[in-house]
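Intended use. Records such as the Zinc finger RING-type entry shown here are meant for training and evaluating sequence-to-structure methods. They are not intended to support clinical decisions.
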Amino acid sequence: MGYPVGYTELLLPRIFLHLLSLLGLIRTLIDTGFRILGLPDFLESDPVSSSSSWPEPPSMSTTVHHHQESSFFFPVAARLAGEILPVIRFSELNRPGFGSGSDCCAVCLHEFENEDEIRRLTNCQHIFHRSCLDRWMMGYNQMTCPLCRTPFIPDELQVAFNQRVWSESELLAEST
């Protein structure tokens, strides 16, 4: 009978609670500012579990001039690797003598459909959805297979590839 005992040592200090509230307000203001400017939602609460699919990256076969006008910046090596890697339909891969026998993309874990565009890596023969592998190359600047880390570019083409990357990089540097 009396008042319950309060455990003040377990409660957060009042100043800490005010600080958290202020940070939440600042986050809301920044998010609102981004939305007003038409920018995407950078402060997504849970990007991994969102039900929407990944956005399709823009086409990689762009010229240097168009590349500069684009709001997206893709690494030169990734763009050139995307031009080298073959894009085919999954239905074409199912013919005898093709493919690795995989039924799903190791990046997004979705099964391949006959009309899906896929990229078949020339060194290791792994296959991925075109958009998944393009995101791996462009978004993360990775030049190796997501599964086995084999380089995208075969050894016999590596010298020519490096020379082309250098020349493309020089063109970009001269035009800026």
